[in-house]
Design a protein that fits this description.
- This protein is mainly alpha-helical.
- Helix content is about 75%, strand content about 0%.
- Helix 6 (about 100-125) runs antiparallel to helix 14 (about 295-325) and helix 10 (about 205-235) packs parallel to helix 14.
C-alpha cells in the first residue's frame, strides 16, 4: 500500500502541484502588487487590534451572534499550521532532500502568502451565518462565486478526508513517536489519552476550539522560538556556514542537476505546503468565522500566518538540525532527528522538550484540523447525527489509527489527500481572484483617504451582490 501511495504522490506532485502552486503564487503576488511585502506593517497592526469587536456599522455585527475575534481565527489557523510539519516535516525534508529543501520551503512560503491572502479574503466575502456565528471556506465560495455545486461538494468531501481524518492520523503518529522516544510510552496508551482529550474539546465546537487555540498557540510558539533563538545565538559562529549550505544545496551545486535536484525541490515544496497550507483551502474555513469590518483584514492576517509558520518556526527547526550536523546520519529521520539534534545542543532534556512541544503543536493541530472537517460537514449536510459520527471518527478513530500505523503510511495518505484538495482549491481561486483584487484596491483607497478602519458593504460589488449573504 505504501509503495502504491508513493507512486501516486510522485505523479501528482511532479506533474501537477509544484507548477500550479508556483504559478498561482507568482500571479497573485503580481496582481496584488506584492501585498505580502508591501502591507506587512498593516498585518501586524490588524493583529494587534484584532481583539476589538466591530460595531454594527462594521457590516457584520449582530447583537445575538457569538463572535470569533480576528485573533482567535488567526490562532486556530496557526494551530493547524504549527504542528508536525514544523518539527517532523522539516526534519524529513532535510533527511530526504538535503539542506537545500529548506530554501524551497522558504520560497513557497513567500509566494504562498499572497495565495493565502486571496483565499482567506474570498472566504470572508462569501461567508454565511450559521448557528449564531459565521461559517465559510472554499466550498462556500465555489458554490456562491462559481455556482458549481458538484465542485463545491467535491471540495467539501476532500477537505473532510484530508484534515478531519488523514491529517489527524499524522499528528497522532508524530506525538506517539515523540513520546516513545523521550519517555518510552507505548503508542496505544498515548493514542487512548489523545483520543479522549480531543473528543472532549471537539464536542465543544468552534468557540471552545478558538479559546483553547488562542491560549496554547502563543505559548507554544513563543517557547519554542525562544529556545531555538538561544541555541542559534550560542552557535552564532555556525550560522554563516548553515546559510551557505542551504543556498548551495538549493540549486544542486553539490549534488548535481537531475533527479536529486528535482527530488529536493519537490520534497521542499511538499513539506512547505503541509506546514503553511497556503493554497490548500484550509485556513479560509476558519478565516470566514472572524468578525471584521472588511474582508481584506482577515486576508492580511492569514497571510501573516504563513510567515509565522514557515519563516519563523520551520526555520528554527532547520537551524537546530543543521547546526547539530546530525542530518547526515542515515538512521535519523522525522521527529527522531529533531529530538536528537536538540539533545545534542541542550543535553538529555532536548528529547523531552521536543516531546512536550510536539504534543502541544500537534494536539492543537488535531483540534484545528477537526474544525476544518466540521465546517465542510456542515456544508454537505445539517444532519446532527452525521456531525456526531464525524466527531468520533476525527477525534477518536483516526487519532488511534495514527497512533498504531507506520510513519510511511500516514504521511503517504496525507500527501495524496493534500494534492487533491489543493488542486481543487487552486482552480477556484484562480477564477475568483479578481474579487479579492478589487477588495484590496477598495481597502487601499479607503486607507489613502484617511479611514483607519475600512468598511465593506456588498453593494460595492453589484454584479455578485445577490450571491453575498453577509455584509449588508
Amino acid at each position: 500500500m505504501a509503495e502504491l501511495l508513493h507512486h501516486i504522490n510522485e505523479a501528482l506532485w511532479t506533474y501537477v502541484l509544484i507548477g500550479a502552486l508556483v504559478a498561482c503564487g507568482l500571479w497573485f503576488t503580481w496582481k496584488t502588487r506584492f501585498v505580502q511585502f508591501r502591507m506587512i506593517g498593516e498585518m501586524f497592526r490588524l493583529l494587534a487590534d484584532s481583539g476589538k469587536t466591530v460595531s454594527s456599522s462594521g457590516a457584520d455585527s449582530v447583537a445575538h451572534e457569538r463572535h470569533v475575534s480576528s485573533f482567535q481565527a488567526f490562532a486556530v489557523s496557526v494551530a493547524t499550521r504549527i504542528g508536525t510539519g514544523n518539527l517532523a516535516g522539516v526534519a524529513t525534508a532535510i533527511a530526504i532532500g538535503g539542506p537545500g529543501a529548506i530554501f524551497w520551503m522558504w520560497m513557497i512560503a513567500l509566494l504562498g502568502s499572497a495565495t493565502a491572502f486571496v483565499e482567506s479574503t474570498l472566504a470572508q466575502l462569501f461567508k454565511q451565518r450559521s448557528l449564531g456565528s459565521f461559517i465559510g471556506g472554499p466550498a462556500y465560495y465555489i458554490m456562491r462565486g462559481l455556482h458549481s455545486k458538484w465542485m463545491a461538494y467535491l471540495f467539501a468531501v476532500l477537505m473532510t478526508l484530508t484534515f478531519g481524518l488523514s491529517y489527524n492520523s499524522i499528528q497522532s503518529n508524530t506525538i506517539c513517536g515523540a513520546m516513545q522516544q523521550a519517555f518510552g510510552w507505548q503508542p496505544l496508551v498515548v493514542g487512548i489519552i489523545l483520543s479522549v482529550v480531543a473528543l472532549v474539546i471537539v464536542f465543544g465546537g468552534i468557540h471552545r476550539i478558538a479559546k483553547v487555540s488562542s491560549v496554547v498557540v502563543p505559548v507554544m510558539a513563543i517557547g519554542y522560538f525562544v529556545l531555538a533563538l538561544v541555541i542559534i545565538i550560542l552557535n552564532i559562529q555556525h550560522v554563516p556556514h548553515v546559510m551557505k549550505v542551504i543556498v548551495v544545496n538549493a540549486f544542486g551545486i553539490e549534488q548535481g542537476v537531475g533527479g536529486s535536484f528535482g527530488a529536493m525541490v519537490m520534497i521542499g515544496v511538499r513539506r512547505g505546503l503541509f506546514s503553511n497550507e497556503a493554497g490548500e483551502g484550509s485556513a479560509p474555513n476558519v478565516a470566514a468565522t472572524a468578525t471584521v469590518s472588511h474582508p481584506v483584514k482577515q486576508g492580511l492576517i492569514q497571510a501573516l500566518g504563513v510567515f509565522t509558520d514557515t519563516l519563523l518556526v520551520c526555520s528554527c527547526t532547520a537551524f537546530i538540525i543543521l547546526i547539530s550536523g546530525l542530518y547526515e546520519v542515515p538512521e535519523l529521520n522525522g521527529i527522531a532527528l529533531t529530538q536528537a539534534a536538540l539533545g545534542s545542543e541542550v543535553g538529555s532534556l532536548g528529547p523531552i522538550f521536543v516531546a512536550i512541544a510536539i504534543f502541544l503543536f500537534a494536539f492543537s493541530s488535531i483540534i484545528g484540523n477537526y474544525y476544518y472537517g466540521e465546517a465542510n460537514i456542515r456544508f454537505i449536510t445539517h444532519d446532527r447525527t452525521v456531525l456526531q459520527v464525524f466527531r468520533v471518527l476525527s477525534g477518536g478513530v483516526m487519532v488511534m489509527f495514527g497512533a498504531m500505523a507506520s510513519l510511511d503510511v500516514v504521511w503517504s495518505i496525507g500527501d495524496v489527500c493534500m494534492a487533491l484538495v489543493t488542486a481543487c482549491n487552486l482552480v477556484a481561486i484562480v477564477f475568483l481572484g479578481k474579487y479579492a483584487f478589487r477588495l484590496l484596491g477598495d481597502y487601499r483607497r479607503q486607507k489613502r483617504s484617511g479611514i483607519k478602519e475600512p468598511v465593506f458593504h456588498r453593494h460595492q460589488l453589484p454584479e455578485i451582490e445577490q450571491d453575498i449573504e453577509c455584509w449588508e
